[in-house]
Amino acid sequence: MNGSLKTACQISDALVLQYFEESDPVKAAFGKNLTAEEWESIAEIKDVYGDVLFSAPLISVNVAHPLLEEMQRELQTEGREFSFLCGHDSNLASVLASLEAEDYSLPNTIEKRTPIGAKLVISKWNKAGKELISLDLVYQKTEQLRGLTLLDDQNPPEIYNLRLKGLTADQNGMYQAADIFACFQKAINSAPK
User: Fold this and answer.
1) Which of 2, 38, 54, 75 measures 20 to 30 Å from 67, CA to CA?
2) Topology adopted by domain 57-190
3) Maximal CA-CA distance, the chain
4) What is the dihedral of CA 90, 116, 177, 98, to 10 degrees?
């Protein structure tokens, strides 16, 4: 994409990174004393850009297709205890749009959709013979990033439980594994052949 939205995104990205790297918020804002809400507005430009490029239904299923297939394979591999797949905010945006995640606004961060370094953590659980799955976004809070603080039990990352449209989660935010697998298959099948 070219034009003003791309330029705005590049500026937004540079300012947000500067805010995370510069301990003095006034210096980070070129002498301005910006509020948290103003920093959120600056960061939102990146979210809009990501949504335009990667989150429209037809686009997301095509962009995310290979990754969705790999994620599904990993989730359904017998005996698999841990898988790590690495990507970018664009991968998060397209995968979550493809799986039809409900709209969300993340707490404790100026980046409300795909914070820098965010992880989509998909956990499989076996509770009383039922296979359950949770989907969570795990990310550092803005102040953790700005303060360069190490994450540990006393200073944990933020964990945001995602909800998927059309699926019913239990009181712990967990879904029946079969429902999640069907959601993956629906998204994979939605990509034109």
Assistant:
1) 2
2) Rossmann fold (3.40.50)
3) 59
4) -20
Q: Is the pLDDT score of 56 beyond 90?
A: no
% the chain with pLDDT above 70: 99
Under the banding of pLDDT at 50, 70 and 90, the label for residue 16 is: very high
pTM: 0.92
Residue 52 has φ and ψ, to the nearest 5°, of -65, -45
Write down the pLDDT at residue 141: 97
Written as one string, the DSSP assignment of 106-139 is -TTSS-SSS-TT-EEEEEEEEETTEEEEEEEEEE
Could you tell me where the DSSP H helices lie in 24-176?
A: 25-28, 36-50, 57-76, 89-98, 142-147
For residue 125, the cross-strand partners are 132
